[in-house]
Write a structure and sequence with these properties.
GO terms for molecular function: ATP binding; calcium ion binding; polysaccharide binding; protein serine/threonine kinase activity. This protein is an alpha+beta fold. The protein has 19 helices and 45 strands.
């Protein structure tokens, strides 16, 4: 039985039966119809083989399509002959490139006998797996198949799995799908008479015979739980019963060597049917002029009736009039009326193709009431009973794949799966029936004929003109009925479509709203909305200042993120101007980030800003967590950033020196508040001029807390992944990954340097390479011309004392060693003291330039001295690190 579609050529003289048979329920077999079917000879095209093609290997002979060597075999049928250096020398034959050993061929029936292993699991082993056969790497031309060459249905057998030993489970697994296809178990009880209990798995009962790779998996039963004992190893092997005659006990005791054989069927897999294959003469395999093919048609002399019983194919009386011997009937014409006999034991009363039944009764026999009193005979008749029959033990799905043996041959027939009882067991198979609108015999070509429904109006109602069609009929109404029916159908259809359209629109809107709601809920949970809600609600002050907005509120505030509301955009996202329902003007930050780590930074910014209340720190009104990336809602600062006002395109900043000092003082105060005055120390980690916003009165407000980190008051630093902006990044933090409050001090020192010089943290001088402002300043200090960096406007508006002290403060903030830097509180006090100095200018800076540079030189020397003294006891590594940092900041 082949479930993969294919074909095989038959030899001269095989008439009446096809080349394969399949055991059916009640011994009904499936095969091509015999007798005088349509005969087709091969084409005249020859298929020459090389003259040197081997025909044998050792004592095994074979024929084409099998072969060894180039041009000697059909694709997928190559063999390998291996020689062994024994005395005398021997040879072994293998399929393909040498993985499956061949024992013998049955070329007439398309069978290959192959060697399979004996799997042994030791007494002390609890489980063991071993491959029985694996043809997955072979072309799809082989399949496990029963030996179907016997003429008697009783002797038809198939490959089996034999498992012998005590207390074991055996599972047969299809390697292609890693699924268990069957199993059996052996049990040995203490009072068991045999130490070698066994079980078998028969492949005949499988619904699908297309397994080409099998593995046996052996496990021991729980001996204590089932009161079993284990005295022997487990042996398992696959074999063909017709070739298995050895003494099992000797094999299990190890006194006899066993070579197990398994049957494989082969076939041509290039085309599913002979008819299609013959259309391609260059690849058609059946080249002999003596081969025959068969079509399911009947001779003219087939009886269709015996007595009162009608005979339908696949049953028949004459030779060639039945499908195979399982459907053979005998018409006994000597009786009056003639009787129809089935299997020489039953009398057929009736048969039904549609129901798949035979109504039979046992033949008559004589019996006596009593030999002691009389010998008058009586005739006894058995009660009529029904035999169910089906075609083969396949389902329709698998049977249809082999078109040469599929029983439902009429084009107007269909197949249906059936299950019937046989000795208490459910047996599966299939039966054929004509399609609706047809009647007749579906097992014959053109056996199903069209029913003329118009000729039997009692069975097929038509209130109008009846017109018979193939497989049905049409009932045309009268003209008046047609008009009325058309109007009715039109109105009904229009109303139905209108109602359906309205319903569809309403349902679609509801579905979209429900979908959007679920998406928003998912984003809310992904963005830690519950945690943030809990954080906000746990603090009454925070709850009053911070709100979690819905996406609807944000869309309304920004007019659905209208482009005219855009305040600015960049690589990280867009900021929109929005108006809340309470008429507050806000800035809404819509980021482009999608990484989870960056979303966590967003949530971190919300968590930090919600706990801060300082006049120089941008106020957070709330956030929206119903989008993929959270949205921040904070107070609207109308006058841009410090960087915008400081680094103008024409180089002429409008910020006065007094305004710059005030902005620096306010920024220092806000940072000092974050470091020490807040409930928990907050390190900003990204202090820069573009993160300092200015309102209409040029009041400074620190923003962008996405990179900020919280640090307990009893700790001095935390270890984090390095993050910040180039030019502002603390070199010590860059090297050690230790984030401290002095890291913010270094960044603030760079801002002071920007306010003093008007230059960007990374700048270029004419056509020179880009320079790091901090390192450039320190080098200028060393070379005693730092005043050359001061912006002209600052030089005019600032006093000598102010500039001198500012330069010294900057140098302190930019110390490479963080311990030597001042705290933000100290920086704030220093800047406040500058502002308290009288605004009356001293002598112009230019008049005392040499003196000022000398003072800075002395001061610088003191700071350098301090650094040298601090680092004097350090290892050479630190000096190398300073050189590395210097080269890092000296950009090329």
């Amino acid at each position: 039985m082949l479930v993969t579609s294919g074909r095989r050529c038959s030899r001269e003289g095989r008439e009446g039966m096809g080349s394969t048979e399949v055991l059916l329920l009640l011994f009904l077999t499936l095969g091509p119809i015999g007798s005088t079917g349509e005969e087709n000879t091969s084409t005249d095209i020859t298929f020459p083989l090389p003259s040197n093609c081997p025909k044998s290997c050792g004592n095994i002979s074979f024929e084409y399509p099998f072969g060894i060597g180039s041009g000697c075999f059909r694709p997928g049928f190559n063999l390998t002959c291996m020689s062994h250096s024994t005395d005398p020398p021997t040879r072994s034959l293998f399929l393909g490139d040498g993985t499956v050993e061949v024992i013998d061929f049955d070329m007439d029936n398309g069978i290959v006998y192959v060697k399979t292993p004996i799997v042994t699991m030791g007494v002390d082993e609890d489980y063991f797996n071993h491959t029985l056969i694996d043809l997955r790497n072979f072309p799809f031309s082989f399949n496990l198949l029963a030996n179907l060459t016997s003429s008697s249905a009783d002797s038809l057998t198939s490959n089996k799995i034999y498992v012998a030993g005590c207390s074991a489970n055996a599972y047969l697994v299809d390697l292609a799908t890693n699924t268990t296809v069957d199993s059996c178990s052996t049990t040995c009880y203490p009072n068991s008479s045999s130490p070698h209990e066994y079980c078998t798995i028969s492949m005949y009962y499988w619904n699908a015979m297309n397994f080409t790779s099998l593995e046996i998996r052996l496990t021991r039963l729980n001996q204590n739980e089932h009161h079993l004992f284990n005295t022997s190893p487990i042996k398992a092997f696959m074999y063909h019963p017709n070739n298995f005659t050895e003494d099992i006990e000797k094999i299990l005791n190890g006194t006899e060597t066993l070579v197990t054989m398994t049957t494989l069927a082969y076939y041509m897999a290039d085309y599913p049917t002979c008819k299609e294959a013959k259309n391609h003469t260059m690849t058609y395999a059946c080249r002999s002029n003596n081969n025959k093919t068969f079509t399911p048609s009947l001779p003219n002399n087939c009886s269709t009736k015996c007595g009162d019983v009608d005979i339908f194919f696949p049953f028949g009386v004459e030779e060639g009039c039945y499908r195979d011997k399982s459907f053979f009937l005998t018409c006994i014409r000597a009786t009056k009326p003639p009787t129809l006999s089935f299997q020489d034991y039953y009398m057929v009363v009736n048969m039904s193709l549609e129901e798949g039944t035979l109504a039979v009764k046992k033949k008559t026999y004589d019996y006596f009431f009593s030999f002691a009193y009389n010998n008058q005979p009586f005739i006894g008749l058995e009660e009529i009973f029904i035999l169910n029959w089906i075609i083969t033990d396949q389902s329709c799905e698998y049977a249809q794949q082999n078109t040469t043996t599929f029983a439902c041959v009429d084009q107007h027939s269909s197949c249906s799966d059936k299950k019937i009882n046989s000795n208490g067991q459910k047996i599966s198979g299939y039966r054929c029936q004509c399609n609706n609108g047809y009647e007749g015999n579906p097992y014959l070509l053109n056996g199903c004929t069209d029913i003329d429904e118009c000729s039997v109006p009692n069975n097929y109602f038509c209130n109008g003109t009846c017109i018979n069609t193939k497989g049905g009929y049409q009932c045309l109404p009268d003209k008046k009925q047609t008009v009325l029916l058309g109007v009715t159908i039109g109105v009904s259809t229009g109303s139905g479509l209108l109602l359906l359209s309205i319903s569809f629109i309403i349902l679609r809107r509801k579905w979209k709203k429900r979908k959007q709601k679920k998406i928003r809920e998912r984003h809310f949970h992904q963005n830690h909305g519950l945690l943030l809600q809990q954080l906000i609600s746990s603090n009454e002050d925070v709850a009053e200042r911070t709100k979690i907005f819905s996406l609807d509120e944000i869309e309304k505030a920004t007019n659905n993120f209208d482009e005219t509301r855009v305040l600015g955009s960049g690589g990280h996202g867009t900021v929109y101007k929005g108006i809340l329902s309470d008429q507050r003007v806000v800035a809404i930050k819509k980021s482009k980030i999608v990484k989870k780590s960056e979303i966590d930074q967003f949530i971190n910014e919300v968590a930090i800003l919600s706990q801060i209340n300082h006049r120089n720190i941008v106020r957070l009104f709330g956030c929206c967590l119903e989008t993929e990336v959270p949205l921040l809602v904070y107070e609207f600062i109308s006058n841009g950033t410090l960087a915008d006002h400081l680094h103008v395109s024409d180089g002429n900043s409008t910020l006065s020196w007094e305004a710059r000092l005030r902005i620096a003082t306010e920024t220092a105060g806000a940072l000092a508040y974050l470091h020490s005055a807040a409930s928990i120390s907050i390190l900003h980690r990204d202090v820069k001029s573009s993160n300092i916003l200015l309102d209409d009165h040029f009041m400074a407000k620190i923003s962008d807390f996405g990179a900020s980190r919280l640090i307990p008051l009893d700790e001095t630093h935390i270890i984090t992944v390095i993050q910040g902006t180039f030019g502002y990044l603390d070199p010590e933090y860059y090297q050690t990954s230790q984030l401290t409050e002095k890291s913010d001090v270094y960044s603030f020192g760079v801002i002071l340097l920007e306010l003093l010089t008007g230059k960007k943290p990374v700048f270029s001088i004419e056509h020179e390479n880009r320079q790091n402002l901090s390192m450039y300043f320190l080098q200028a200090m060393k070379e005693k011309h730092s005043f050359n960096l001061v912006e002209d406007r600052v030089m005019k508006e600032g006093t000598k004392q102010e500039l001198l002290e500012i330069i010294q403060l900057i140098e302190m903030c930019l110390k490479l060693n963080g311990i030597e830097r001042p705290t933000m509180k100290e920086v704030e006090h220093k800047l406040q003291s500058f502002r308290r100095i009288g605004k009356k200018k001293e002598n112009p800076i230019s008049e005392g330039m040499e003196e000022t540079e000398y003072l800075l030189s002395d001061s610088s020397y003191t700071f350098s001295d301090s650094i040298d003294q601090t680092t004097e006891g350090m290892s050479r590594n630190y000096s190398l690190e300073k050189e590395f940092l210097w080269s890092l900041y000296n950009l090329r």
